[in-house]
Design goal:
The chain is of the alpha+beta class. It has helices at residues 18-28, 49-70; strands at 6-10, 31-35. The two termini are 15 Å apart. β1 (6-10), α1 (18-28) and β2 (31-35) form a beta-alpha-beta unit.
Length: 71
């Protein structure tokens, strides 16, 4: 795959080692978003409003900028 991609992971993920996520991101040349202290959770955003806002902004930017450039 050679298109734009986005990799999001927590720096303290205890299921998928962050080094594995980083390697995948490098292999796909992904835009990377890292978060701290959220482990491996389906509730990835947590409850911290700053984290929620930062992730939402980064994801929207990826979709509106990075993916738009691909087309």
């Amino acid at each position: 795959y050679y298109g734009n991609s986005l990799t999001i992971y927590s720096t303290d993920d205890y299921i998928v080692n962050p080094a594995v996520s980083q390697s995948a991101a490098e292999a796909f040349r992904s835009t990377v978003i890292t978060v701290n202290n959220l482990g491996h959770s389906y509730n990835f955003y947590g409850t911290d409003p700053t984290t929620v806002s930062a992730l939402n902004t980064a994801i929207v930017t990826f979709f509106t900028t990075d993916l738009a450039e691909e087309n």
